[in-house]
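Title: Comparing notes on inverse folding

I've been comparing how different people in this forum approach sequence design from structure. To keep things fair, I'm posting one structure and asking everyone to reply with a full sequence. Here's the target:
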């Protein structure tokens, strides 16, 4: 089954008065959608490629104060909107955003209250939607590198954080849609002048390689390598947390296309 570039969240879809909606769910006290929502991205978008979002409503469970919950609901809306924007989905300029603390009719099942509801309409659009990552990769020449944005790992490990899934899906789709494309996956770390003792950079590059391999990308089209701190974007030691983040990265180099 082909994977789709666009990253959109889905759990429940329904229609009312010409407008459709779907709900995105969150774990307790989290402002990023839970793993199940992330894994449902492809299935939803395959059926709803051309939409325009007009309204988003954020909710929380009954735990904690009204003010705290309202701020959490606002952050949930923010993160869902960022994912929609990243996907290229059309969002109305006068988007209506409503965040609720506790002032709504709550379900007795707390997990059902931790959500963002997105309202949208279908639109006619013959122009194919292309992600920014796809555009960068396809505009790059052989030998050039492209950074994979928003790939996160747990501290000092090669375990990928679930919120990295949108970028991984984008890369997967690019590989599926371009069967002649061959890449080297490159891992980099930050903050250390010494040798990458635990070879974390290689392990992280391997994690992305394994993700693609597990999703049926031919191993002959990919290699991976860890570069430690030998190719920093910023001199080490870094001067800020932002510079550390930019040095701690995964890139792909175009080998053939």
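Reply #1:
Here's my take.
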């Amino acid at each position: 089954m082909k994977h789709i570039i666009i990253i959109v969240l889905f759990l429940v879809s329904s229609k009312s008065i010409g407008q459709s909606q779907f709900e995105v769910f969150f774990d307790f006290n989290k402002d990023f959608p839970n793993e199940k929502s992330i894994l449902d991205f492809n299935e939803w978008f395959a059926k709803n490629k051309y939409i325009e979002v007009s309204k988003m409503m954020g909710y929380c469970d009954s735990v904690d104060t009204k003010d705290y919950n309202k701020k959490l609901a606002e952050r949930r809306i923010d993160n869902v909107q960022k994912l929609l924007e990243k996907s290229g989905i059309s969002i109305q300029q006068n988007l209506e955003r409503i965040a609720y603390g506790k002032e709504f009719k709550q379900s007795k099942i707390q997990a059902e209250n931790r959500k963002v509801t997105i309202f949208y309409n279908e639109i006619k659009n013959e122009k194919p939607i292309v992600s920014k990552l796809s555009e960068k990769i396809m505009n790059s020449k052989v030998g050039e590198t492209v950074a994979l944005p928003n790939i996160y790992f747990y501290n000092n490990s090669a375990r990928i954080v679930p919120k990295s899934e949108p970028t991984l899906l984008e890369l997967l789709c690019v590989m599926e849609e371009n069967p002649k494309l061959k890449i080297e996956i490159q891992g980099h770390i930050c903050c250390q002048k010494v040798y990458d003792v635990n070879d974390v950079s290689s392990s992280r590059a391997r994690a992305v390689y394994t993700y693609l391999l597990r999703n049926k990308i031919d191993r002959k089209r990919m290699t991976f390598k860890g570069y430690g701190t030998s190719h920093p974007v910023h001199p080490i030691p870094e001067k800020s947390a932002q510079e550390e983040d930019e040095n701690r990265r995964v890139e792909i180099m175009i080998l053939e296309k």
